[in-house]
């Protein structure tokens, strides 16, 4: 391939336009590199755009300004405990050190406005170094009209409400308690005001991942970094010495060859929607494609790295998320819902198998290991009338399509409900009776539900235990709970500079990777909300730094190829 002429030459080429790719582009431009981002889809933003948009980066300026900073040693202890020796110390240290530097760079832009989601606990706050106040930051809402011509190319998500209503994760936390607390009622009044305001001002407000991606895109525009849509990488180009010097891509039906003097960064996401790879790598009960990741995520970057001899790790894991599969095909993650007090999740035997309110990755790990797929979320009418569930507001009926498809069942008694979902009625009844005893005492003696600050974040603060209440009032509901995911977690093995490594530990010169294209720095765990996006952004930044500091050796033939 090296004897062919190049159609375009840049210093640094980024494949993928999610949070990691965009952050790398901003960093590379700041370091003086001529940079290009290419995106396979017709919209930019990747899985970041359809996410909640949380960023878990300890000691980011947004945190330290509000008193949310930490000693790096505490963060290191926390991450080392979670990863249990499966991730090199050098990568953990690079993440801890590089995160604040990236966020300091982003803070220089007038477009990057962030806030601390104070109280959104780390996912394991009781572990050494964990924080009950949390380390998650999030972008302030953004009016996407400011994107001008690029607004039409931004990937949408499901966080936009009717009549222009917009909510942040903090808003949602409060709104979930609209029937229970003053904070919830106040949030509902704010929401009503926003609807009225937007009807007059006609703003296009984005929150969560869309706000993050929109703000990053504005910074990229200011930096003059081009972003090509509908441009799919088909091949990595190497020099005779094995260095990666560019890519071949398909753009609008034409083949383009792009030279990258300082290297190529793969930020292409995981293999969420590649059924062949799911069948090959994921555990048996996690192979069904119930993924909320971007539809374009088909393992392109991972497969390209494997062709060059790259090592992979964690390929049997994912950012698991218990989910409801909507009759129309959408994946509805269950985050706050699993904290509803008068509810349990049971297996095919009608028995609980884990703490329902635990972090979602841990919940599905237990679900998969026990073969509890599908599971059944069981709640009473009291719960249905008090709390939102799967985007259905309190007191509002579930759409008939959920019943018709068998996703939801309803019955006047627990015995009738058990028959409808095919579980033993005596066991389901015994499970509920035992749980109700825990609810009365305020202590879950089986699984410790409500013991962790994480469990309690989305719980009902009016209860003795925010996650426990008796299931007594019919009719009763059972909702089918699948082992879904937010994207796969395994991928190319990288070092502290985001360089892709071979099986022998040597680096493939000129090739970098970040995000779900790589084996996660979190190992099999999840530190807190935004622990996917945070590392993706940080290792994109570190890749740009390394590329700026190192010039790839050029063989004679690769010089000819760039002529």
Layout of strands and helices, then pairs:
Blueprint: E1 8-15, H1 19-30, E2 35-38, H2 46-49, E3 55-56, H3 61-64, H4 72-83, H5 89-107, E4 114-116, E5 136-139, E6 142-143, H6 169-175, H7 182-201, E7 205-206, H8 208-223, E8 227-228, E9 231-238, E10 244-251, E11 254-266, H9 275-281, H10 300-307, E12 312-313, E13 318-325, E14 331-333, E15 343-346, H11 360-369, E16 375-380, H12 381-386, H13 400-404, E17 408-411, H14 414-421, H15 425-441, H16 453-457, E18 476-488, E19 491-492, E20 499-501, E21 507-513, H17 533-549, H18 556-561
Parallel strand pairs: 1-2, 1-11, 2-8, 11-21
Antiparallel strand pairs: 3-5, 4-5, 6-7, 9-10, 10-11, 12-19, 13-14, 13-18, 15-16, 16-18, 17-18, 20-21
Number of helices: 18
Poorly predicted spans: 555-563
Oligomer: single chain
* Helix-and-strand structural type: alpha+beta
Helix share, percent:
25-40%
Number of strands: 21
pLDDT averaged residue by residue? 94
**N- and C-termini, Cα separation:** 13 Å
Largest sheet, if any? 8 strands, mixed
Name the overall outline: globular
Radius of gyration: 24 Å
Strand content: 15-25%
Task: Give your account of this protein's structure.
There is one protein chain. With about 575 residues, this protein is an alpha+beta fold. It is about 35% helix and about 20% strand. It has 18 helices and 21 strands. Strand 20 and strand 21 (about 505-515) form a beta hairpin. Helix 1 (about 20-30) runs parallel beside helix 8 (about 210-225) and helix 4 packs across helix 5. The chain is globular and about 75 Å long. The model is unreliable at about 555-563 (pLDDT under 50).
